[in-house]
Amino acid sequence: MLHRAYRILATGDHDYRGHRAEAMKQVKKAADLLGYDLGGDDQYHEKQFLSDDKMREARDLLNHVLGAAEVKGQEKISKHIDAAISEIDAALATK
Question: Is 71 left (phi over 0), alpha (psi -120 to 50) or beta?
């Protein structure tokens, strides 16, 4: 789910005043702590309304990650995922 959320964020529109990119950084930090590789091609970018839908989808995925067994009780990982969710919420509020 972390990888999917990261890919969704990576293909989003850039018009979120840095919050989308910061959410990506936080997801990457959480993935690094778990030993996950998030590598891939981020060349494609979507139109704004589609990007907003994808941002919401990424937020939902990250909320599920918070409940996952490998994250429960690991404050360092949860902190980054929570920060990513906050950045997504801020990004969606920048209209």
Answer: alpha
pTM, to two decimals: 0.64
- The three-point CA angle 7-12-13 to 5° equals 160
The Cα angle at residue 40 between residues 36 and 44, in degrees rounded to 5:
140
Q: Is 27 within 8 Å of 9 (Cβ atoms)?
A: yes
| For helices 75-92 and 19-34, angle between their N-to-C axes, nearest 10 degrees | 160
pLDDT tens profile 21-68: 999 999 999 999 988 888 765 555 667 778 889 899 999 999 998 888
**How far, in Å, are 47, 51, 68, 76 from residue 26 at the CA level?**
23, 19, 17, 11
Taking a C-beta distance cutoff of 8 angstroms, is the pair 46, 13 a contact? yes
Alpha helices by DSSP H, listed for 1-95, are 2-10, 19-34, 48-66, 75-92
